[in-house]
Structure formats: C-alpha cells, structure tokens
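2024-03-11 09:14:02 DEBUG pipeline.ingest accepted 1 chain
2024-03-11 09:14:02 DEBUG pipeline.ingest length=169
2024-03-11 09:14:03 DEBUG pipeline.predict start
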Amino acid sequence: MERFLIGYMDESLCLLIIQFCPNLKEFYIIIEDDGLNILKIIFESCQYLESIKIMFDYRCQGMEGIFEAITKYSPKSFYELKLYKMDLRYLFPKDLESILISWKNQKSQKSLSLIIVIYYDTDIHNILDEHRENIKVIKKYKRLGIIKHFGFETFHYDASIMNRNLFLF
C-alpha cells in the first residue's frame, strides 16, 4: 500500500498502520493537539513518505510544533505538504522563516511544495492581504529554491461538487 487516508487516530492505531504499511508514500491525517507525537512516529517509520496531507482539528492551534516535526523527522523522500483548514492566524512570519531555514538545512534534497487547502468560498485575496508578511517570507524562499510550489487549493465538502482549483504563486 502506498496511500493511506484516515481521520482521527490515536498512537496505537498509528503504530498498527505503519507496522503493516511501512512503504506509504502518501498519508492523510487529522491532527488534534496531541498529534505531534503521531506525526513523529509516521515520519520515522515511513521512510518512503513523499507527501502528507494534514487537516487541522478545530482544537489544534499550535502550528510551529507541527512544522518542527516535519523539518526534524520527515524522511529524505518527503517534499509535499498540504494543509487543510489551517488557521493562518497562528502562523507567524518569524516562525515560518525559522521553519523554512530548517527545511533548507535538513536532509531532503527536494524543494518543498506547500499547498494550503481552503473552503471553496474563501476569498484568496483577503488571505493574501491579511497575511502579506507570511506571503513575503514564502516568496523569498521560493526565489531561493527552498519552496518549489506554494499556493492555495479550494475544495467543497459536498462530494457532488468535485471542483478543485489550484492557485500557485
């Protein structure tokens, strides 16, 4: 198995999954406040992991811990991060810059693809305006080659609407 999608999971379920599926390349998980340890376990056990898609539980506010786990523990093959329902109010420019410096200095030879997935009716221009300092940091690291792709993808919870748009910078 190369791809695994799951909602909430505790540490014991995570251990069971990676025991039987150590060759996963893509993982989707919902992160709660205690999800950092689970991320560490996934990264240390799935050495072929290329992509992780993280949906943030409404209780999860600490972004820096999640990014720290990604930069510290992700395998060499890892390069794509998709963040669903991420509240950008909790991601500060200095933390983002620190994360990207760590990515630059880590073992991966691949540039990072960072996609933020938002609801279909979210105004991207408002996001860009409200978080312009973060966007400046991202553009700086894109110019340096640390970030390969950065953008927003829209989605709709209604399964009958399969419209996904990707807006790359």
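2024-03-11 09:14:41 DEBUG pipeline.report The chain has one domain: 3-168.
2024-03-11 09:14:41 DEBUG pipeline.predict end
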